[in-house]
Design brief:
Layout: E1 2-7, E2 10-13, E3 20-24, E4 27-32, E5 37-39, E6 42-44, E7 53-56, E8 59-64, H1 68-72, H2 84-94, E9 101-105, H3 111-117, E10 122-127, H4 130-142, E11 148-152, E12 168-173, H5 182-188, E13 189-199, H6 202-210, E14 216-222, E15 229-232, E16 235-238, E17 248-254
Parallel strand pairs: 9-10, 9-12, 10-11, 12-13
Antiparallel strand pairs: 1-4, 1-8, 2-3, 5-6, 7-8, 13-17, 14-17, 15-16
Amino acid sequence: MKKVLIRLPRATEDPDTGKKIILNKSEKYYVESDSDFNYNYGSIKAKTIKGSELRSGKDTFYVFDPVFLDNYKKIKRLAQIITLKDVGAIIANTGINRDSEVIDAGAGSGALSCFLAKIAKQVDSFDVEDKNLEVAKKNAKLLGIDNVTYAKGDVYNKEEFKNKNNTYDVFTLDVPEPWRALDSAYDVLKVGGYLVIYAPNITQIQETVLKLNKKMLHEKTIEIIEREWSVKDKVLRPVTKDFGHTAFLSFVRKIN
């Protein structure tokens, strides 16, 4: 059985100033509760991995049963997966809910389709690579998700999806040339449905928006920037790191 252990930071006090000195930062571990666990500062016997708190030497750990998000962060990745901030933006800007049927093109490792399946009624995901589909299926099984399907399909060829016309509420698209999938997206979306284009380069977005037909409305294109803050005692500051670009998200709606 899996467990999540969160080790609290070790700290000491400067004898001259009385200020707290952090010796090492907090860390999170994803472990098997029936196996001994070794980490940089010691080891923990399997029989002690229980309850809500444990001690090992000078370290204190909180013990949790993993929730979906803990397991999600451990899925197998063939390449960079969509970030949580972008997943959140997709859900918030399309209103995906338990009544929604979603089609996902460019399954990759299955990260986006699995997350959306926890919220939506049904997700059907497609990819042209067999190895991607194999990994995506294993990840869905790991996460205990049974309302997502994976199949081989070329979204650039609308004939492959002709039996799905006017079926879906949301179409998520993560492929190198999204403009080539516009005909497929238009056909399978319900009137009022959303096409979400996920692309690392703004030129991909530009090309796609330029090729939209008059029955598809480009609502907006966004980039989500996330900055973490450090909150310790009376000291508040941004955590020093770059504003890493992940992707652009374009939201397009089928008019009729």
